[in-house]
Structures are given as structure tokens and as C-alpha cells.
Amino acid sequence: xxxxxxxxxxxxxxxxxxxxxxxxxxxxxxxxxxxxxxxxxxxxxxxxxxxxxxxxxxxxxxxxxxxxxxxxxxxxxxxxxxxxxxxxxxxxxxxxxxxxxxxxxxxxxxxxxxxxxxxxxxxxxxxxxxxxxxxxxxxxxxxxxxxxxxxxxxxxxxxxxxxxxxxxxxxxxxxxxxxxxxxxxxxxxxxxxxxxxxxxxxxxxxxxxxxxxxxxxxxxxxxxxxxxxxxxxxxxxxxxxxxxxxxxxxxxxxxxxxxxxxxxxxxxxxxxxxxxxxxxxxxxxxxxxxxxxxxxxxxxxxxxxxxxxxxxxxxxxxxxxxxxxxxxxxxxxxxxxxxxxxxxxxxxxxxxxxxxxxxxxxxxxxxxxxxxxx
Length: 374
What we know:
Layout lengths: L19 E3 L2 E3 L6 E5 L7 H14 L3 E5 L3 H13 L4 E4 L4 H10 L3 E3 L8 H13 L3 E7 L5 H7 L4 H17 L5 E6 L3 H14 L5 E2 L7 H17 L5 E3 L6 H14 L7 E5 L10 H11 L7 E6 L5 H5 L4 E5 L4 E6 L2 E7 L3 H24 L1
Helix pairs in contact: 1-9, 2-3, 3-4, 5-6, 6-7, 7-8, 8-9
């Protein structure tokens, strides 16, 4: 729960779900909402796949999924899982043997639809492998690949069809006394996804993996995901998320964190509050923010930074941020620390100076946290 007794209108009451483990990452219950992405390399290329996993992890990914469509992929998975700093989810579709191989290779979770891999005997084999190797399972319902009998029953992909598919798959696992599963019901249509997830949340206590599948490119997919995932998260639904973009997986992680940060559900790195700029600006706000975003990518400590072009809204925004800079006149602006005016700084030195201030503040926060932990 996001609890704010002073501003109760900011509170988010999270849906109560049971907790499972994806490797060492807890999902569900009162665990933080985890951020996932998926590699787009050839999984059998261990070097390329690991490089992408490492970049995603450095950007903040808690969990990374890789596709394992063939034996070459599951063979490569052993080294990938061994070297990865985050849990690896193996993406399985129809080949039950790939699921067994992935579990044996060290995957922390299998993304699979039990009803798609064959008869009851094959489901039992996959469940046994998951139990033997400590794997969880994600049931991944997708509007684009619903079972034929459900499409015939409902006429088209719809929330009822997606939820029925999910419950059918849940039953297959529960019949095999397997309960370490989470579930998703994705569609590329925001309305369909949101409605299906709301129905699903009401009929199961399983952890829910949120996603708007095939959302699109970086800009359009970000907007669509922010609307779909943001609305569900706002109402307390969702235990782990993946933003699906036709873009670098690192961008998916960044967008995922920004969605969570905007709702106060996760904090990581510097949150920059900046104006769109206008004729009143005392410095080039857009170029300054672009430079600061790049220069501050390495800072993981949560803090806020306001960069405002003029004194109309600048002082007010600075009151609410750890560090602030407000444009003034004569090539200078005001630096704010903890909401209070600190000193004047020339625009020509402002970027370097702000980076120094942020790094110093991050070190102070980390030292305080370490001392408290001791």
C-alpha cells in the first residue's frame, strides 16, 4: 500500500495477492512491484544475450525474460542463468520439453500456458520439473492466441474469454498441486486488457503480471502502456509489470520505472521535474534536461530534482524537491537545496554544478541508510 496520511488522495490500496518467488525476487503480497523486460537477441548467442541482460539489470530490471524456442536456446540458458545478476524467465509456447530443459538449466520461472503443451501427462512432467528445480510459472494469456473453443464460444477475444482461459490454465496447475504461479492476460487493446485484468483480479488471489502486449514503438507504446498499466496500478492491480515496446529493452525498463515512480509505487534514481519551456526561460531548459538525464543515469539513489526555466513556478516546485534550479536573469539562476534558496549559479556552470550536488546528496542518503541498517 502507498500510504500518505497527510495527502490521503495519493494513497493506493493494492489488491491482496499471495506471494511467490521468482528466483530471489518476491512477487505479490506486500513485495515491491517488480519491473521486467525481455531480450530480443538470439538466445543461443550467449554473449549477446548476456550483454543485453546486464544492460537491462543495470537500468533497474528486477527480472529478465528470454525466449527459448529450440534446444540451442535451452542449452545456452544454463550459462545465461549462471551469469545473470537477475532471475531469468524462460519463455515457452508449445514445446513441453523446452520447459523441462529450461527448468533444468536454471530458469527461475517458466512462462507457459499449460493447456497448450499437450495432454495431462506432459503437464505433469513440466510441473514436476518446476517443482524439482524451484521454478515458478507464469500463465500468459494473450488475446491474440486464445484457444479455438473459446473463440467459437465468445465469437471474438473478449474479457470473459481471456479470464476463462486463465482460470482453465490455473486449474491444470492446481490439479497437479502446483501453486507457485502468477498470471497475465494481455492484449494490444488498452480497453480489452484493462477489463480483462479487472475481472481476473476479482476471481483469483494469484500475483498478476501486467502488460499491454505489442504496444508499439517507443513513443506510441509508452503512451499506451502508461494509460493501460497506470490505470490498473492506480486501482491497486498488478504485482509485476513489463512494458512491451518495439525498442531497446533498456527503454522498457526506464518506462516501467517512470510509470511506477509517477504513482509513488517505486523509487529509483533521480526524478526530474522540468517545465516545457517558453519565452520566459532564463536558460535552455530542453537541452539542460537532456544533458542531465544522461549525466545522472548512474545515480540509483531516489531523489527529486526540479529544473524550471523562470521564477513563475520555479520556487514553488523547488519547495517540493531535494535539489532545484530556477532560471533568473543576467545568465544566472537560483539553486535550491531541500526547498530553500542556497546560492546563485551561472548558467554556464549550472549542469556540472547540479551533477555535483546530486552525487553529493546521493552519497549522504546512502551513508544515512547504511548507518540505519547497521
